[in-house]
Each structure stands twice: as C-alpha cells, then as structure tokens.
Amino acid sequence: MTPSPTAQALPPPRKKHRTLAQGVVEHITGSIQQGVLKPGDKLPTESAIMEQHGVSRTVVREAISHLQAAGWAQTRHGIGTFVIERSNAGLAINAESIVTVMDVLAMLELRISMEAEAAWLAAARRSEAQVAELAKVLGAMQRSVARGSPAVDADVQFHLLIAQATGNRYFVDILSQLGTTIIPRARINMPQLGHDDPAAYLERVNREHEDIFNAILRKDPEAARAAMRTHLSNSRERLRQAQQQLESNGA
Prior knowledge:
Number of helices: 10
Order of helices and strands: HHHEEHHHHHHH
Structural class: mainly alpha
Low-confidence stretches: 1-18
Mean pLDDT: 79
Oligomer: single chain
Pfam family, one: FCD
Protein name: FadR family transcriptional regulator
Largest sheet: 2 strands, antiparallel
Domain HTH gntR-type: 18-86
Radius of gyration: 19 Å
Organism: Massilia rubra
Shape: globular
Strand order of the largest sheet: 1-2
Keywords: DNA-binding, Transcription, Transcription regulation
C-alpha cells in the first residue's frame, strides 16, 4: 500500500483540556471516521506527525499505542503503522480498562504465560540484527535508570522486540494492542505504592532485563524462558505486596 496523505482535511486538534497524546489520537481517529484515512492506508511517519501537531516523539508513540490498543491501527516492524478494520480486531483487549491494581495483577498473570514462551522462541530464532536492536534498547533503559527516569517507552520496546524475534506475529499483535499498559509503572507508581526507593526499584527491574537479554544473546531458550518468568513473577509479587500493604493501611 502507498502512504496516505497526512489527513489535512481536518484542522489540528486543540490541546486545551486534553493531553497532547489524546489530541493526536482524536485527530487521527477523526480522519479515519471521515474516510480521509482508510483501512490499509499507512499513517504518516512519526516525524511528520510531530511536525504537524508540534509534539515530541514520546507523545506520538503514546498516541500510536492508544490507536493500537483501541484497534484502529497496527504497526508492522520495519514498514510502518497502518489503519486496520476494527471489526477484524477480534482478539483486541481494551487497554483503557486496565486501571486498578487488580487489573494490572491479572494482566501480569497473562503475560507470565505468554511472554515466557515468547522469550524461549526468541532465544531460539533471533537474528543478529534483532540482538543488536535489543542491546540498543537495553542501553537506553540503563541510561534512563542512571538518570532516575522510569523509561516506560524503552521498556515497552524491549518486550515488543522479543515478541518480534519469535517470528510469530500474534505475539506482536497482542503486546501492541496493550501498548504501555504492559508496564505496571506506566499506570501505577510502583515505588510509592510499595514505599520503595525509586532508584533501587528501577535498578532491580533493569537487572532482570539484563538477564533476559543475556540468555537471548547466548541463544539459551530455557534460560530466556526462566529469566522472563522470573522478571514478570517478581513484578507481580512486588505489586501484590504493595497492594496488601495499601489494603492494610486502609483497614
């Protein structure tokens, strides 16, 4: 498919009383609903959207994640993001419904089963180029940890790259639908909830990512599966303990 025009038919969204990402999402979904963008059309590049709306790359990526989660678009690695038929999104999960601690715990249970196997497959099938991309994103996370930044976008990308390395597009589809909701700290202040030191919390999470990466680098499927299971199980346990403490304080 050839790229579609940048949907100039609609005026740029007003940013008052809405987040920047919501404004981008509303503009694009409006273009789809009015037929300016049709299923199969390729969305403008990140740079084009940034220029059109006067927003950062982070805002654009958040908007794309919302579009994916709502079943409006699908990203094809190395090609771009395309409008899809919403009726075809039969497996779609409403990411916006994942709002409470219990919701996030339930999602972690699903991810433990799914992503542990994805890590196994990634270690068995990954290419050198995919390992290089993983290393690049891991480095970005490490730099963010050094700055005390949560690095949510890089964390999402790390898990998506592992899904892509499986060679099975359905792993990618499901994680793409969920967007940033796959990262608990994107919705919940984990260190604050657990009365934890933010720097120490991020450092622990980063070490778990390193263990996953090293197993995939060695092409060790069993170690990759175990490292991913450990990482997500630890996330679930940290959140479960924080939730229990919160309930005790409120009792």
